[in-house]
Structures are given as C-alpha cells and as structure tokens.
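Help needed: design a sequence for this.
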C-alpha cells in the first residue's frame, strides 16, 4: 500500500501490511524533509511512527487512542507528547487530520531544576584538566560559555573557533550567530594547535568521526562516579542552563538572551528570571540579617 492508497482510505481504516510500512516511513521522511525540520526531529518522528505501525495493523481513530493509552502507561508526559506530535504529523501527511490526537497536559514549572552549580562546573573543569581530558573540558566549556545545544556543539568547526563565532541554522531557514567568548576562544585555539586540528570538526571520537549528542550524554553520565558529582546535573542542557542563568544575572537583557539561545518565543526564556526554591532559601539566608 502506497501513500496515495492511504490518502484515499482516510475516512476508513488505513491497513498497514509489512511491505507498506517501509514505504509509509520513506514517504513520511520525504514529507518531513520538505517541511525543513531538523534531522533530530525527523529521527524522533520516524521512530514514533514506526513504533505505531509495528504495534497496530491499521491506522484508524480507535488504534490511535489505544496507542495514546499505551504511551501513557510506558513513558513520561514529555515523551508521550513527542510521540503524539509525530503521529499527528503523520496524519497531516496522509490527509487524515480528523484523527488527530490531543496532547496531554504537562504542569509547567516556573523555575529550573537540575542545573549544575557554578562551583561544580569549576570543579569539573579542574578535574578534566588534571586528568588530561581536554576533549570534554572544551565540550562543557563551549556549552557553558555560549549556550549552544549539544546538537549544535557537535557541529562546531575549527574555522568557527578561529573566526570567534558560529552561524547556526534552524527550521524555516532561520539563522542566529553564536559568539565564542575571547578567553574560551584563545584557550580552544591553543589546544587545536597542539593537536594539529586547524580545520574540520572540533570534537572527534577515537576513530576520527564527529562526536554525536548521544555519545556526549553517555560520557557526561560517567563523570558522576569518576568525580563524585550529582548525576541529575550531568546532562548537556545543564551547561546551556548555566550559561543562561549567569548571563541574565549579569546582563539582565532577556531579549538578547532569547536571541542568543535561539528561542522562538521570549516567554520560553523567562524561566531564567525565576529562582528555584533552594535558590530562594539561600538568597534569603544571605540577605536577611535583621
């Protein structure tokens, strides 16, 4: 069954035989690429669609609702909504919008948790330098001093370091320029000269291939046991959050921070204005002396 066959049966069941699944996913990938979605988003959406197509023999309203129940039983709300977005996008590509699923409500917190402290960040840097792990020293240094996402930092090239900035492109051909602070740039350039890597990707594995976001996440988790750090803060976004919190405390320009981070909506950036309960407690204890 081809994509066109599925479109013609939009008002009834769309039956998915084994031979049809591969074609459906191939057509779906082409649809996502035409929409210029990020490759990471395409991968996530295809994974969700493939999961559904292997669990249920046909695409119809009842099976979609069963799938939603399955997701709620097995995954956290954020993952549930990601899979729902994937299936809704698949429905759009098949012109089956009447079968769209509703997202689950997630109670949004007004503050950030699991952000590495400045003290732990400095401690981790010292440990990495002491152990000669310059690769991960500069990975966390770049994320913490530029606010780059891990999917962006793996794209960093030696040419970008020499220029002192990196131009990043997102869906819809939107672009933003991320500047590398002078001190970070100087140290990184000195390291690149030592290892004779003055062109191409900066962060490579032992085989000489660019590191992947998954590889970086996995390695960061190992620092818990090695250096006695809290595992909950050893994730790539923790260093992006550290950059944002420090930036807003020193500069206070929310609009500029939103541009640097590449947020589509400034409301997303407002979370950095709020302090967690533990931060509020520490601040009150430090300020109140009467």
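Sure. Designed sequence:
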């Amino acid at each position: 069954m081809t994509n066109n066959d599925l479109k013609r049966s939009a008002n009834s069941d769309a039956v998915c035989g084994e031979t049809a699944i591969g074609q459906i996913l191939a057509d779906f990938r082409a649809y996502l690429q035409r929409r210029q979605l990020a490759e990471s988003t395409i991968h996530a959406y295809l994974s969700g669609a493939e999961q559904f197509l292997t669990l249920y023999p046909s695409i119809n309203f009842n099976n979609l609702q069963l799938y939603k129940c399955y997701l709620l039983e097995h995954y956290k709300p954020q993952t549930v909504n990601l899979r729902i977005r994937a299936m809704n996008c698949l429905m759009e590509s098949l012109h089956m919008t009447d079968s769209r699923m509703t997202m689950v409500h997630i109670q949004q917190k007004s503050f950030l948790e699991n952000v590495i402290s400045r003290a732990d960040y400095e401690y981790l840097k010292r440990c990495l330098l002491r152990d000669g792990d310059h690769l991960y020293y500069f990975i966390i240094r770049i994320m913490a001093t530029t606010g780059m996402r891990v999917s962006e930092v793996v794209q960093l090239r030696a040419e970008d370091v020499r220029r002192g900035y990196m131009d990043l492109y997102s869906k819809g051909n939107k672009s933003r320029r991320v500047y590398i602070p002078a001190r970070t740039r100087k140290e990184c350039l000195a390291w690149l000269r030592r290892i004779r890597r003055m062109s191409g990707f900066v962060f490579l594995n032992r085989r000489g291939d660019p590191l992947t976001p998954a590889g970086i996440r996995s390695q960061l988790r190992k620092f818990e046991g090695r250096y006695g750090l809290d595992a909950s803060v050893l994730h790539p976004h923790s260093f992006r959050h550290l950059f944002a919190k420090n930036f807003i405390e020193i500069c206070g320009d929310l609009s500029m921070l939103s541009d640097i981070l590449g947020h589509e909506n400034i409301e997303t950036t407002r979370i950095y204005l709020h302090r967690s309960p533990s931060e509020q407690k520490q601040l009150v204890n430090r300020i109140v002396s009467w």
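The radius of gyration is 23 Å.
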